Structure to design on (110 residues):
């Protein structure tokens, strides 16, 4: 495998499928606004997240909420996370209820 083919594979992996964002679509939106290659923006974002994890993630989420191209997808993503978290909490609560011998009717009646 040559260096050129490795670089080409990285570019293709970071470019993603046409029109399909990899996470929230922030990198693709920035690349379009700046007339840059999307894989370059994604690579820079990955490096920033590795070096400055929390500030980079916060900036990425805020950009996802603020940019008109990604706003709907970002809100939908977090709405889905809330649903998943609620389901997990219900399952954990049911598990604790089984372990400690109580069910939901015990809580409602007293």
């Amino acid at each position: 495998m040559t260096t050129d083919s490795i670089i080409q594979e990285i570019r293709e992996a970071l470019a993603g499928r046409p029109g399909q964002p990899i996470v929230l679509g922030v990198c693709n939106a920035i690349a379009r606004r700046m007339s840059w290659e999307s894989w370059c923006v994604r690579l820079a974002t990955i490096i920033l997240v590795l070096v400055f994890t929390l500030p980079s993630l916060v900036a990425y989420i805020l950009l996802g909420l603020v940019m008109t191209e990604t706003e709907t997808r970002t809100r939908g993503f977090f709405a889905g996370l809330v649903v998943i978290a609620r389901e997990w909490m219900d399952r954990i609560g049911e598990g604790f209820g089984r372990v400690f011998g109580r069910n939901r009717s015990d809580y409602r009646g007293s």
Summary: Residues 89 and 95 are 10 Å apart (CA to CA). Helices lie at 3-15, 26-34, 38-51, 53-66, 71-99, 104-109. The chain has a mean pLDDT of 82. The radius of gyration is 21 Å.
